[in-house]
Specification:
With 331 residues, the chain is of the alpha/beta class. The protein has helices at residues 3-19, 30-48, 65-68, 139-155, 160-163, 189-194, 201-212, 238-255, 265-272, 278-281, 299-304, 309-323, and strands spanning 173-174, 180-184, 221-224, 259-263, 286-288, 291-296. Strands 1-3-2-4-6-5 form a six-stranded mixed β-sheet, sandwiched between helices. The structure holds uracil.
């Protein structure tokens, strides 16, 4: 294999692992993990360089081939930070008191052996329900599909009023094999600047809710009904949601999550096609194709109306119960 091919393949692999939420390669020792991480860190720029001569049978950058071969038991979590577009968030700094009305932090990861959903879908909403349109894709094909879709999003100029003001498009972030998709409204100023959903004040609250629920941000997938920030954070227009529909529907179809949480009325309109209020729709599961849909209040609303936090916490407990996750405070 040519060196540049090897590098492209390595870069792709790291990206897939990172985007897929893979944080562990089984059967590795702490020592081999540390070795692999330090190898990848020291070669990160090399892995991501643009073009190079062949490595076959030759030394590279003064390193012998055995030195440039990554340890087979490599354990690596993410792309080198210089390549990442994600924003550091600080769920680790969440303290019990900072959770306010949310329950104690429950840092348990989603157990892969967690019992599958048991609650029947209590209500069906408009739209096609019950099945996904297509066969579930292997993770690498999801990655490719998202790369292509993101390129289309970046090129999209359908919403005239928005496109001339946007700084970045905000495609979505998280695991492409997530059990749960968090569906929000639209990017705000911080998201527009950084290109990642839910990184501002509402995002900080969403992170706390996730931590309290035993869900980690990289384990879920987060996206919005719009990929671009509406001017002055105004409510997205129906036509704008329709312009974005092919994008978010393709994302949902690719991930095929078990659950979608609609945060606020705009998400409800986009996913369920309903104009009913959150208050009327919350408290039971709805359906979008193959996923159970839970409706709850938008984090921005919760920031303005702290009394509603207990209702969202009830909704999250319903989700956790159905997912087979431990509920804090319940033995
Ligand atoms: N509110 C949303 O609905 N989405 C974001 O990404 C940020 C704030």
């Amino acid at each position: 294999m040519q060196r540049n091919q090897w590098k492209a393949a390595s870069a792709q692999l790291l990206k897939h692992w990172s985007r897929s939420g893979i944080s562990q390669v089984p059967n590795t020792t702490a020592e081999s993990q540390a070795k692999a991480v330090s190898w990848l860190e020291s070669h990160a720029s090399f892995v991501f360089e643009a073009s190079d001569p062949a490595i076959h049978g030759a030394n590279v950058d003064g390193l012998s081939n055995s030195q440039v071969t990554p340890p087979i038991t490599a354990n690596w979590v993410a792309e080198p930070s210089s390549q990442r577009q994600t924003v550091p968030i600080a769920p680790q700094s969440v303290t019990e008191s900072s959770l306010e009305r949310f329950a104690e932090p429950n840092p348990s990861v989603i157990p892969s052996s967690a019992p599958r959903p048991t609650t029947p879908i209590a209500a069906m909403q408009p739209g096609v329900v019950g099945v996904w349109n297509s066969k579930s894709l292997p993770i690498l094909e999801r990655e490719v599909a998202f790369d292509e879709l993101n390129a289309q999003v970046v090129e999209c100029r359908k919403c005239e009023e928005i496109v001339c003001r946007r700084q970045r498009t905000v495609f979505g972030v998280g695991a492409l094999n997530a059990r749960v998709v968090m569906f929000g409204e639209a990017p705000g100023a911080d998201e527009d600047r950084l290109g990642e959903p839910f990184v501002g004040a509402a995002g900080q609250l969403l992170d706390k809710i996730l931590v309290a629920s035993g869900l980690k941000r990289p384990e879920v997938y987060i996206l919005n009904s719009l990929k671009c920030r509406p001017p002055n954070n105004r409510t997205p227009a129906e036509a704008e949601i329709e312009n974005c529909r092919p994008f978010f529907e393709a994302q949902l179809e690719t991930i095929q999550p078990e659950y979608i949480v609609c945060w606020g009325a705009v998400a409800v309109r986009a996913v369920l096609g309903s104009t009913d209020s959150v208050g009327r729709l919350r408290g039971r599961f709805h359906s979008y194709r193959g996923a159970k849909v839970l409706v709850t209040y938008h984090p921005s609303y919760l920031l303005r109306t702290p009394d509603a936090k207990k209702l969202t916490w009830e909704d999250m407990k319903m989700l956790m119960k159905d997912m087979g996750l431990p509920i804090p405070g319940k033995s």
